[in-house]
Amino acid sequence: MSRGDRGLVRASEMAEQKAEKALQRVASSQQVVADMEQRLIQLKQFHTDYTCTADPTTLGNMQAILNRRNFIRRIEEAIIYQRDLLEKTRHEHRCVEQAWRNERAQAKVLDRVCERHSDEARWASERTEQAMLDELSLRKPRMTE
Asked: Is residue 144 domain-resident?
């Protein structure tokens, strides 16, 4: 294997490693998105639970009613904030996925180049070998008659 061949193989291996690392980033990013989706679901459930249940101790107590409304408003703000954060995280995840696709495509291209280079070297070797065999067969005295 020539120096150029080794360099090409090494470049292909490095591209493959970069694609693997990018895939790990995709998996990690997907987990972050799933966690954030779960937090949003929990916040919505907490909001539903809190707004649907009346606290009998607050009936007639204006300050308690105002505190409850303020708390519900804060929950709603948290839901809006979580939704925005989730959307940003999804966007980041799509960017990470695209980066992985690009790395993977580059690794495939380099792999194909290595294969083609190897095939061409093998074909050249076979042609050389065949030419040598043809030459030997021409030099060999023929046994006729």
From this structure: no
Q: 58 in the Ramachandran plot: left (φ > 0), alpha (ψ -120 to 50) or beta?
A: alpha
Q: What is the pLDDT of residue 35?
A: 98
For residue 138, what pLDDT band results from cuts at 50, 70 and 90? Answer: confident
CATH code where residue 65 lies:
1.10.287.1700
| DSSP structural state of residue 87 | H
Domain that holds residue 49: 3-139
- Identify which has the larger pLDDT, 140 or 131: 131
Question: What are the tokens at 44?
Answer: 């919505």
Sign of CA dihedral 8, 12, 14, 18: positive
Q: Which amino acid is at 127?
A: R
CB atoms inside a 10 Å sphere around CB 7: 10
Q: Does residue 63 lie within any of the structural domains?
A: yes
Q: How many domains does the chain have?
A: 1
**Buried b / exposed e along 30-46 (16+ C-beta atoms within 10 A):** eeebeebeeebeebeee
pTM of the model: 0.72
For the chain, count helices (H), then strands (E). Answer: 2, 0
